[in-house]
Amino acid sequence: MKLSLLYTVLLWAVVRASEVTEESKSTDSVKTSSSQSSTHPVSSGLMQCGEYSNEVMPNGQCRITATLPQLEEQRCPDMFRCTDEVSFWLRENEERKQQMHDLKETISELQEELRNHRHRIKVLELQREEKYGTNSSLEHRFLTLQQIYEEANALLDIHGSLIYDLQTQIRNLTMTVERVKRNPGCMINIVRTSPLLSAQHTLHPEVQHIRNCPIDCASLYYNGVHRSGIFTVVPSLGSTPVEVYCDMDTQGGGWTVFQRRQDGRVNFNRKWAEYREGFGDLHTEFWLGNEHIYAISSQGEYSLRIDLEDWSGKHKHALYQNFRIENEDNHYRLHVSGFSGTTEDSFGWYHDKQSFSTPDTGHICAEISHAGWWYHQCFFANLNGVYYKGGRYSAKGKNLLGPDGIVWYSWKDSDYYSLKKVSMMLRPRTYRSRLSP
Known about the structure:
Its main location: secreted. It is found in: Secreted. By secondary structure, the protein is of the alpha+beta class. The protein is built from nine helices and 14 strands. The strands form three sheets. Strands 4, 5, 6, 7, 8, 9, 10, 11 and 14 form a nine-stranded antiparallel beta sheet that branches. A three-stranded antiparallel beta sheet has the order 1-2-3.
């Protein structure tokens, strides 16, 4: 509003100055036209003293010219003054000069006020820039803090996962220790390594001295355990204890059971990793795990017993004097020989020296048979096959590519008869049962 007032006053001053100039020119024109030259005689009584003339110049000044005779001892009247019109014009001119002076002072004051306003505007602009600069800085700091907050949340999630994994490992270690304590007379060294830690940061082991620690169910039997059940053994080639089911009743006991089928509640169509680590329930159906079978069978010379039962309740068994499997690098290759028993051999003669395969390894027989086994082309025995209640099944009725049941071919001379119960177990070949004291 002050700037608007300033511009209004300046405009008024300019217009007023223009009006004054126009009025001055108009007056000059009138004066010039009315009295450009006026000549008056000067006399004193009868004496001619001379004459004078006055005129208004274009620049507004009054010009007076006097012509006086050279008289001696005579005094002429005082004629050196302007006419009334010229005096009036001179007074008007002085007033206008004063107005012009006042206008100049007003203009100077307005110009000063204008400069002050410009200065204030500049100050406001600087303050605005400073304010926006501060806001920009605060926004940058906010974004930085938000990024730090997100990174902290991510680290908290990672730490939470690590803590959860460590807690799981501690629980597993505690359970393992408890299982080991249930073994009569067995004290072992337990070392657990976290997969999340480097080799230099392994967990501290729980050190326990050992004495007659069982490496299989046969050694448990020698230590006085003559009842069947679940126990913990520590294979000499293994680094960790493992729970196993011990059959202390069949043929003198001492058998470490590594496979059992009895009701079809466990699915044996599993991947390589599951067959390697083991799956199922030791109380019902299970596969102990190829790593554990390898660790136990590689401790010495072991025998294999396979028990079979059909849907009419008939029992038979196959016994192999020599049994072991190789490690994972060699695909748990089978070595089995020395057959005897109450059934015909459908396993050793055909599957010996075959590698273990599962459906996810790309072996066509494992895919067709829906199980993990030591397949050849494809099998005469498939004890990990699909559980078919009632025994008989057909490829046509099940829309199969081939037989996939729990098959022992020589039982019915057929690939399409699935057994009701089977189990596989091993013990040292030199095992001799003895009575407990």
